[in-house]
Specification:
The protein is an alpha/beta fold. The chain is built from 12 helices and 6 strands. Strand 4 and strand 5 (224-229) form a beta hairpin.
């Protein structure tokens, strides 16, 4: 057996090569045979598979056609070109902008859909200063957030339910002025006819249903999806057996959280410096 180079699946370029190799093996093809179907050389395929040459959008399209992979490899290349976004997040956004209902739970920071431009910029600038993303990636991230927020004004607008852990409104981001404006936006958000805003107070303790952020989407055909993130990856889940318990847990958390009236009163007092 030929001694194959081991590929690191955590490296985006090598992950592409690994998936390409697995798909090629599934067809029982050599590198030269795949190359003939793609209109390139076997050397080129070898270089991409081993991570010595980055895949281009054109190469990815050819691989998808030759291997019957839909747009799998094109999406991988797109994700590689924008490392400011977690894998799985672009697909989530495509579903979010068409959802009839959006249910959010967030810890630590205000959810992106509810952020002011200044609050969002402070979050992105912090990531730039830490070296987590580049300035260009920060700009791309903010542009995408603006598009996502604009989708909330479509006709008809989605119903948006947001439960914020108390840490979201107490953690200062961007300084006093930015936080005051952000809290004002939350109050204005709660006044809309298609929204519900609640705060899950610290004393909810073990009764809080989630320990990590989660977003639940209900599509126009009533299909339900769940999106969650780790530090390295985003995951969009469609399996009803996985999603339905999360929907149930979300409803339980809404029942335990402060009412919208109580939540708005807390945010308003915090805005005025009374807490």
């Amino acid at each position: 057996m030929v001694n194959r180079k081991r590929l690191d699946p955590d490296d985006p370029g090598k992950a592409f090569g690994l998936k390409l190799r697995q798909a090629r093996d599934g067809h029982g093809w050599t590198q030269d045979e795949l190359a003939a179907c793609m209109g390139c050389s076997g050397t080129h395929v070898s270089a991409v598979e081993t991570g010595r040459r980055p895949p281009t959008p054109r190469f990815a399209r050819s691989a998808d056609r030759a291997l019957g992979a839909g747009d799998k490899f094109q999406r991988m290349v797109q994700a590689m070109s924008n490392t400011a976004l977690l894998e799985g997040f672009p697909e989530f956004v495509r579903q979010e902008i068409r959802a009839a209902e959006i249910r959010l739970f967030e810890l630590g920071i205000v959810p992106g859909l509810l952020q002011t431009a200044e609050y969002a910029a402070a979050i992105s600038n912090g990531a730039v200063r830490r070296g987590a993303i580049t300035e260009q990636q920060a700009e791309e991230r903010l542009a995408l957030l603006s598009e996502r927020q604009a989708s909330l004004t479509r006709t008809p607008p989605p119903m948006v339910y947001a439960v914020l852990d108390e840490s979201c409104i107490r953690r200062s981001v961007g300084g006093a002025a930015v936080m005051k404006a952000q809290l004002d936006k939350l109050v204005a958000f709660a006044e809309l006819p298609t929204t519900v805003l609640q705060v899950a107070p610290f004393d909810l303790g073990e009764r809080r249903a989630f320990d990590l952020p989660v977003t639940l989407l209900t599509l126009p055909d009533r299909t339900q999806l769940a999106y969650s993130e780790s530090a390295q990856q985003g995951r969009l889940e469609r399996d009803t057996h996985f999603v339905q318990p999360l929907v149930t847990a979300y409803h339980q958390m809404q029942a335990e959280a402060a009412s919208q009236a109580e939540s708005v009163a807390t945010i308003s007092k915090l805005r005025k410096g009374a807490l």
